[in-house]
Structures are given as C-alpha cells and as structure tokens.
Amino acid sequence: MIIAGRYSFNKGLEIIQRDYKNLLKEISYIIGTIDAGKCKKKKSLEKTMPGRLLYSPKDLNSAFKREFEQVGWQKQKVNCEYSNAFYEKNYKAQSMNSGAFREMDFLKNNLGVEVQFGKYAFMVYNVCAKMTIFHNLGYINAGVEIVPVKKFADEMSTGVSYFEQFVWDLQHRGVSNIDIPVLILGIDKSK
C-alpha cells in the first residue's frame, strides 16, 4: 500500500516529524508492507454492486494489526467506569459495572495510531474525541489516523468514509483548544 495524502491537523505533521521521526518512518514502512490485493475477497451483496469483489475492511485491519504488532506497537485499553451522579432522583439506573471500555488501536512511546475503514463518524470520533481522551489520561501526546482515500474507499462496501471528506470537514471545523496534534494519512492500494 502507499501513502497517497497527508493532512496535518493542529500541527500534527510538524510535531510528529520533530518528536516521533523514527515512529513515522516505521508507520510508513508498515503501510508499504501491506499487500491490499490479498484483502480483496469480500463478495458484495449490495444492490448497487451485486457480486462485485471488494476490499475487506476486516482483512485490512488484520493485516495492519499483524504488521504493527511485529514491531512492538500495542493496543491500549481503558475501562470506563460510569457515574450515576447525573440521573434524576426518581430514576432507577441499572448497575454501573458495564464492562465498557475505550481502545486505541496501536500505541508506542506516547504516539497513538488508529486505522479506520469504517463510517465517517468513527474517523471524527477517533480524532476529535478518543485521541483527546487518551491524551488527557496520559497515554499519548500526538496521534496518527490512517484512512483510505476516495479511490480506495470506492472499492469497499458503501458507506466507508475517506480521506478527502474527512480533511474537508476538519479544515472547516477548525482546531479547538482541546485538540491534540494529529497526522491524517490517506492510503491507497498502490500507485
């Protein structure tokens, strides 16, 4: 696979190049080692493209997991303890021991990485909420979000979001004082 686009959100590129130069090289290397062709095996059942062979997000995620873990990146899981302090007095809440958690795909030396081949809302959540939460909890200082470019997303199931859409929204949203530096990488299957 290749990196087809880069977007620096809140000086993400500059800070990651300065503080995590070797990890950025490692991420670029990992992307380059993944053979997307091996992940084109999902037969579409959708009305708009019946029988068409598509790239499988599940298989792509597995390939990324394998490659990241081989060089020491680890998943980071945080358990959520929910409070009942905000319920109305007369409301009977269920038990707060829900087993809920939040998880960062990959973490190494305070740099977090999320790989997203899903719906648009998950990309926004990763960058504008999850990475901020993991920063506030002391796990990361900056993040990298890896997403497909439109050309690649068009060969997946409908509804998979893409780099160009995500960048446009981040540009028009602007940066908040709670946002952390994030580098958005748009990837494609090949040149």
Which secondary structure elements does this structure contain, and how are they paired or packed?
Blueprint (H helix, E strand, L loop, with lengths): L1 E8 L2 H8 L1 H13 L6 E4 L9 E3 L1 H14 L3 E6 L21 E8 L2 E5 L4 H17 L5 E7 L1 H4 L9 H11 L8 E7 L3
Parallel strand pairs: 6-7, 7-8
Antiparallel strand pairs: 1-8, 2-3, 4-5, 5-6
Helix pairs in contact: 1-2
Radius of gyration: 18 Å
Discrete helix count: 6
Low-confidence stretches: none
Give a short account of the largest sheet: 6 strands, mixed
**Which structural class is indicated by helix and strand composition?**
alpha/beta
Pick out its properties:
35% helix; two-stranded antiparallel ribbon; 6 helices; 8 strands
